[in-house]
Amino acid sequence: MLEKLFGLSKAKTTVRTEVMAGIATFLTMAYITVVNPAILSTEGTGMGFGAVFTATIIAAVIGTLIMGLWANWPVALAPGMGLNAFFTFGVIFGMGYTFQQALAAVFVAGIVFIGLSVTPARKYIINSIPKSMKLGVGAGIGLFLAIIGLKNAGVVVDNPATLVGLGDVSSWPVLLTGLGFVIMAMLDKRQVPGAIIIGILAVSIIAWVFGIADLNGFAGAIPSPEHAFSLDFSMIATAGFIGTAFAFLFVDFFDTAGTLTSVANLTGKVNKKGEVEGIDRALLADSVATSAGALVGTSNTTSYIESGAGIKEGGKTGLTAVTVAVLFAACLFFAPLAQSIPAFATAPALIFIATYFLRNIADIDWKDVTEYAPAVLAAVLMPLTFSIAHGIALGFIAYALIKALSGKYDELNAGSISIALVSVIYFVAV
Questions:
Q1: CB 276 within 8 A of CB 260
Q2: What's the CA dihedral at 360, 250, 24, 17 to 10 degrees?
Q3: Number of domains present in the structure of the chain
Q4: Are the CB atoms for 28 and 194 separated by under 8 Å?
Q5: Is 336 a domain residue?
Q6: What is the DSSP string of 260-289?
Q7: Is residue 361 part of a domain?
């Protein structure tokens, strides 16, 4: 049955290899079961930790199963980092949306993503967005995650005189955040699977042992996904909603395309013409997962680059993804443990994940100011305005203006011009 379903012989792999690959992938991304609920249930969002915990896992299971069983790719999905922070701090706190309205924007972004995935527009859009801006947006998301993590840990605090300042570095939360970050970096350097989740658990255990945080149990009943099917489309006709949905779509679309392309290169899915075989199904699986995730009550569900850990272990087929889905499903029974993990244990995860996002800036063309200037502007503005959408919008406006005024009209295409114009309309309307 497995041979017929996944084509193991054709892919030159075995059940054991695929299962072990799935375990490796799961360990590298298991942190999302704790981090995503922690972000979305930040005080003031109206979302409960338990409900988001369950929604996170359901979304991961649905998305990963679709990717594994239908697309037959060794790629796992879960609510994406960066987009969950934008959902909370940019849309709910920044724009004053309710979480129901924010979920509606995610759902709409997923529907548009589905439409793009089944039309030739997909390839055109991917190719029309300047490489430097893609990299700049990715770096900006990294900085956005970093400042959230530093704030949650108390490393960075409010300072009326200088806007921000250094917190109490002798406090337990700050010290343990630093320890967690060091553990994650050290284990990652040694190529230990699950470096992030190990770091989170290590800090949590220290906190529980010394009474800095409370351990409320390990296993228990599955929390109700009470936010499921609670979408509110009342803002759908407003510029703010359209801009928000666009921001969700933009980041998700290009993050997914980049992840799947990277995976394709590792698994030999790129043919002699440079075309990625089966990417249509993979993109569609990802887009369906986004809308499904919104329906169950979480932010954008997307393909995880951490899938590369499983691929390094030999994973080549959808059986790897199915294994990950099964392991995620098992996590549903450990809500009490997840809820016991303190904020300063997840903070180093945010900071460490930020370093992954920032690595890409090395590939920006630093010899051409018309390329690096708008990319850097977009990246810097995201954390400073606490909004991914504002960073994208202002970055693309700057890109179009700098290119045009520098006489490089031929380097502007319909895609980048359209995004710049939409960005202008967004700011005028808002």
A1: yes
A2: -110
A3: 1
A4: yes
A5: yes
A6: HHHHHHHHT-B-TTSPBTTHHHHHHHHHHH
A7: no
Q: pLDDT band at residue 172, thresholds of 50, 70 and 90?
A: very high
The region of weakest confidence among 2-6, 28-32, 83-87, 204-208 is 2-6
Q: Rounded to an integer, what distance in angstroms lies between the CA atom of residue 396 and that of residue 393?
A: 5
Give residue for tokens 């960066």: 82
* Residues forming a β-bridge with 103: none
Does 34 fall in a domain? Answer: yes
Overall pTM surpassing 0.85 (yes/no): yes
Tell me the residue type at 11: A
Which of 137, 188, 217 minimizes the C-alpha distance to 388?
137
Residue 2 lies in a domain: no
Q: Which of 193, 249, 201 is nearest to 80 (CA)?
A: 249
Q: Which residues contact 339 (CB under 8 A, 6 or more apart)?
A: 49, 50, 53, 216
- Classify residue 237 by burial, with Cβ atoms within 10 Å: 0-12, 13-18, 19+: exposed
Taking only the tens place, the pLDDT of each residue in 100-116 is 999 999 999 999 999 98
Q: ∠ at Cα 232 (228, 234), nearest 5°?
A: 175
- Rounded Cα distance between 12 and 8, Å, is 6
pLDDT tens digits, 6-52: 989 888 899 999 999 999 999 999 999 999 999 999 999 999 999 99
Q: How many CB atoms lie within 10 A of CB 166?
A: 13
HSE-up of residue 167 (Cα within 13 Å, Cβ side)? 19
Pair 183, 307: CB distance under 8 Å: no
What spatial distance separates the first Cα and last Cα of the chain, rounded to whole Å? 55
Range of the domain at 176: 10-354+366-429
- Write down the number of H helices and E strands in the chain: 20, 4
